Amino acid sequence: MQAAKTAEAQGVSGAQGTAVVETATGSVEGRGQKVRAMLRAQLGEEIYSSWFKSLEFEDFDGRVVKVSVPVKFVRNWIQEHYAERLLHCSRVEFATAERVEVVWRQPGVAVQRQAEARPETTIAEKAPAAASQAEAPPRVSVLRPPVLPAQRTSAGGLEGSPLDPRYTFDSFVVGASNRMAHAGATQVAETVLTDAPGYNPLYIHSAVGLGKSHLLQAIAWEVKRRAPSAQVLYLTAERFRYQFVEALRSSDPLAFKERFRNIHMLLIDDLEFLQGERTEQEFDHIINALLDGGKQVVVASARAPNQIERLNERMRSRLQRGLVTELIPLDHELRLKVLEKRLGEKRAADPSFTLSRDVVDLLAMRLTENGRELEGAITRLYATWQYMRTPITLDIAETVIRDLVQNLEPRRIKIEDILRIISRHYGVSKGDLLSQRRHRSVVWPRQIGMYLAKHLTARSLPEIGRRFGGRDHTTVLHAIRKIEGEITKNPHLGDELEELKRLLNH
Fold first, then answer.
1. Same-domain check for residues 343 and 286
2. Domain range for residue 272?
3. Cα 318 to the chain's mean position, in Å?
4. CATH number, residue 341
């Protein structure tokens, strides 16, 4: 007891002598209780419960007060918004404190520390405790839906890529930007084993995070549900390549091809990642054989068939023979629907979790890139709420999604970006844009690209000309004047240029 008092006295007089580390956990925590009481009185119950309820005082060495919280987000928030207030209140109890260090308390550390500090309980003390526990009301457990394991399709001795049980038609949110692709996917799933006409092949393309893989896996799940005996194979391009390489190593490429003979449906994801001359040739043969045999083929890619340079003309033509549909970025209405859907899924796990309309509107307004960002934001807010158990405010939501939100400053646009967007928008290959072709279907997009390069980059006319296939600066100047003249005649061209600029800034 005397030693503790001496240590405390030495800590208080640290300004005059060497600071002494305060090791008595109970002493630090006891003084921390008074600090928390001051914070509660000054900040109010709502703010205190949100940010300081889980605060624990760990240590004081005469200069630095060390406190901990169980969530990194809470630590960052306190440091950004309440550091001065926390230091001011702490100095009332820790007079020589120069700063307060807020650290993340890893799960289980506090519990372990408390167990070590707790004196050994006697048998006489344990009995009443056990009785009180028996009398205490049972904790309410939250019903959580079972997490289904990923499954793989298999056919002909080939094992497919994993199917995510979440990626079904029921969980897919339909809106204006994806309605056509969704309709095509559902029709394929419903008609693959019937004589009803369908789309074969079905080709879905879009940027990342807009639902290509979701639709492909939903088709596989639906077909397996309707016809469990159906031979359905879902493969990423990477896995297709891996299995073909393994077949080559075992000197069995013909047997590999034969395994596809009895497949009812083949789904290929991420076609743009198909690499290797022999792999591409084998893929061509297999796709042609399946289509000739009336078997269903579904393909997903980040680019349209005419924008994948590695495809030969025959394969490109066959893929374009069926339904080619694009998933475009989600509009505001669809983003709201996605958020409500994902919020509903979290509430099914814990009904007490909710988000205000203002927070949902904020997410829909700030996160415009793809659906994965929206889902990630809901997951983050749910995790934050689980720790804090306080309503998610706009300030909290802003902080949680900070790294998900795009930089609001205009991004630096490169000529390569312009070529990519122009190629995609007008359905012209990059090679054609850089070639000497003079057909209007190529010349017009090329002139649009030069015009955008002049207005959106710092490149000189000669540099733009070089980047557009080694052209003279006079050609670039002619293209710019041509587009400027057309803008005055055609009001729709201005809208088209604004849309291209929007795509480039994303």
1. no
2. 151-327
3. 33
4. 1.10.8
- In terms of domains, do 336 and 469 share one? no
Are residues 462 and 369 part of one domain?
Answer: no
> b/e per residue, 234-243, with b = 16+ CB within 10 A?
bbbbebbbeb
Looking at the structure, tell me whether residues 319 and 340 fall in a common domain.
Answer: no
Rounded Cα distance, 178 and 180, in Å: 6
Tell me: do 390 and 469 sit in the same domain.
no
Neighbours of 333 (CB within 10 A): 12
- Cα 422–Cα 423–Cα 429 angle in degrees, nearest 5: 150
Backbone angles phi, psi at 154, to 5 degrees: -150, 145
| Contact (Cβ atoms closer than 8 angstroms) between residue 463 and residue 477 | no
Residue 138 lies in a domain: no
Has residue 435 been placed in a domain? yes
CB within 8 Å of 378: residues ≥ 6 apart: 339, 342, 343, 346, 355, 363
Q: Do residues 277 and 297 touch, judged by C-beta distance below 8 A?
A: no
In a domain, 259, yes or no: yes
Exposure of 289 by Cβ count < 10 A (0-12 exposed, 13-18 middle, 19+ buried)? middle
**Residue located via tokens 């995070």:** 209
Amino acid identity for residue 443 in this structure: V
d(CA 404, CA 395): 15
The total number of residues written for the chain in this structure: 506
- Of 278, 301, 327, the last residue of a domain is 327
Residue 148: DSSP 8-state: P
Residue 171 lies inside a defined structural domain of this protein? yes
DSSP assignment of 188-240 equals HHHHTTSSS---SSEEEEESTTSSHHHHHHHHHHHHHHH-TT--EEEEEHHHH
pLDDT in tens, 14-61: 434 433 344 444 578 788 888 888 888 888 876 787 778 888 888 888
Residue in 220, 237, 205 with CA at minimum distance from that of residue 163: 220
Task: Write down the mean pLDDT value for the chain.
Answer: 79
Cβ-in-10-Å burial (0-12, 13-18, 19+) of 407 comes to: exposed
* Among 304, 327, 350, residue at a domain's last position: 327
pLDDT digits (tens, 9 = 90+) for 419-476: 989 998 888 898 889 998 888 889 999 999 999 998 888 788 888 998 998 898 889 9
Q: How confident is the model at residue 149 (pLDDT cuts 50, 70, 90)?
A: low
Alpha carbon distance 35, 57 (integer Å):
9
What integer pLDDT is reported at residue 447 of this predicted model? Answer: 93
Query: By C-alpha distance, which of 22, 24, 55 is closest to 38?
Result: 55
- Smallest CA-to-CA distance from 49 within 349, 355, 385 is with 385
Q: Where are the beta strands (DSSP E) in 26-157?
A: 56-60, 64-69, 99-104, 151-155
Pair 197, 271 in one domain: yes
